[in-house]
Specification:
Blueprint (H helix, E strand, L loop, with lengths): L9 H8 L13 H8 L3 H8 L7 H11 L17 H7 L4 H8 L3 H10 L9 H9 L3 H9 L2 H21 L14 H10 L3 H31 L3 H35 L3 H13 L10 E4 H4 L11 E6 L2 E6 L1 H17 L9 H4 L12 E2 L7 E3 L2 H14 L3 E4 L4 E5 L4 E5 H4 L7
Helix pairs in contact: 2-3, 8-9, 10-11, 10-13, 11-12, 12-13, 12-16, 14-16
Length: 431
């Protein structure tokens, strides 16, 4: 049987050829007619239908096109929950080289992604690109990667490596420095994720540093439990010690999975900064029936760099706007510490307590505004807001900020209002 085509269903091919499903938009085809349509022989088609031969991906796509169906409709879906990315690719009738050509990537890098789940470091939106090339949802790509044997083996090995480093470094007294740069466990872990040792060391220093805090607190409670003369305090400390130990063990087990997810979705520093700016606007937590969006051209001149699974794009009239998706908010909240370890100089997300406070929220007439006759609240990202208001204060004048061909935003040192561009720049001479 052809390698990788074990999911091909001979019975489905015959059913679609003979229109066994009785679809009005399909016609019955003889084996010879289908063979003529795909450039094969009648004997080859019958061999496919009888399970004696299996078509390669190119032939699968040709058969699907001739039958006017999607290639996956020729597959046996009973084991779809176990499909890897390679299985999905072949099921849609594509060779690895077809995807390589579509994405303009080296065969080595694509094979590494498909076989090991390693995203090319210079292409942070690579999973989205692969999803588009295969015509699949991103979530399906993620699940397929998780099922890849090499990925499962890497996470199992990563756990052993992380445990070894936790045992070695966390109990050490003195200032926390993280794993040694030349630690062989660290070197092996970096190689398994296809990332530089220094990058993995920074990330792991943060992760193990969080564990160290739990370890220190657990040891404090243990001392009280062992030596305090008050029985009630001893019992309370013993309970607290067990609780901190459970927290330590739980978080230790999560590290390999977090590293795996982070290195698939990690963004460069400039894009991370944009995600933080959107997070700080707090757009995702506002009322959806009214809406609260960031004006895209005030956030960035390159909106295409914003990951589509993390950022939602829209329009209010002809003003382009964006905000974090639910997944984007989770991404920022979950990985803020790891990004801070990698990019210590960039702005950080506002903490949860501050995000819910009245000072952190945008207020009408200050950080947000509305277009004439529209209910949606539009927000100005903080960096742009600060810079523009500083200029307005220095010049003691309101500044016109074009939002679109129709609207303009007038910003002063402490004021903000949107209006029609024609009203701000009259095109007709007064009588």
């Amino acid at each position: 049987m052809t390698r990788g085509q074990t999911h091909f269903s001979p019975s489905r091919l015959r059913a679609h050829r003979t229109n066994a499903f009785g679809r009005e938009d399909r016609n019955y085809l003889t084996a010879q007619q289908l063979a003529n349509a795909v450039g094969a022989t009648k004997a080859q088609v019958l061999a496919y239908e009888n399970g004696h031969r299996v078509p390669d991906p190119v032939r699968v796509r040709a058969l699907a096109d001739a039958l006017k169906i999607h290639p996956t409709m020729l597959m046996d879906h009973h084991s779809v929950q176990d499909w890897t990315l390679a299985d999905y690719r072949r099921a849609v009738g594509l060779r690895a080289q077809d995807v390589v050509d579509k994405l303009s990537i080296s065969p080595k890098n694509y094979r590494r992604f498909e076989n090991e789940g390693i995203v090319p470091s210079r292409r942070p939106q690579f999973i989205d690109e692969v999803a588009a090339a295969l015509g699949m949802p991103r979530e399906a790509i993620e699940r397929a990667i998780d099922r890849t044997p090499a990925v499962r083996a890497r996470q199992a090995r990563a756990f052993n490596l992380v445990v070894a480093m936790a045992d070695r470094y966390i109990p050490q007294p003195g200032a926390w420095r993280g794993p040694a740069p030349d630690d062989p466990h660290l070197t092996e872990l970096a190689a398994s994720y296809g990332r530089p040792v220094q990058r993995i060391r920074r990330v792991l220093t943060h992760e193990l540093g969080e564990l160290r805090q739990a370890h220190v607190r657990a040891q404090r409670e243990r001392v009280i439990a062992d030596f305090d003369t008050d029985l009630a305090r001893q019992a309370s400390a013993r309970y607290a010690y067990e609780r901190w130990q459970d927290l330590f063990d739980r978080d230790l087990q999560r590290i390999p999975r977090r590293l795996e997810r982070f290195h698939r979705t990690a963004q460069p520093s400039d894009v991370w900064q944009l995600l933080v700016d959107l997070y700080n606007i707090d757009a995702i937590t506002m009322r959806r029936d009214v809406g609260n969006w960031a004006v895209t051209n005030l956030l960035t001149t390159k909106p295409e760099t914003l990951p589509p699974h993390l950022v939602v794009h829209g329009q209010v009239d002809d003003v382009k706007v964006c905000r974090l998706s639910a997944e984007g908010t989770t991404h920022v909240h979950s990985y803020a510490g790891l990004y801070a370890a990698l990019f210590p100089g960039v702005r950080r997300p506002i903490r949860g307590a501050n995000r819910s406070s009245s000072k952190a929220r945008s207020t009408p007439g200050q950080e947000t505004f509305t277009l004439p006759n529209r209910a949606e609240r539009l927000a100005v990202p903080q960096p742009f807001l600060t810079t523009t208001r500083t200029v307005a204060a220095d010049t003691k004048a309101s500044l016109p900020i074009p939002l679109s061909p129709t609207y303009v935003l007038t910003m002063g040192a402490s004021s903000m209002a949107a209006g029609l561009l024609d009203a701000f720049y009259p095109t007709d001479e007064p009588d």
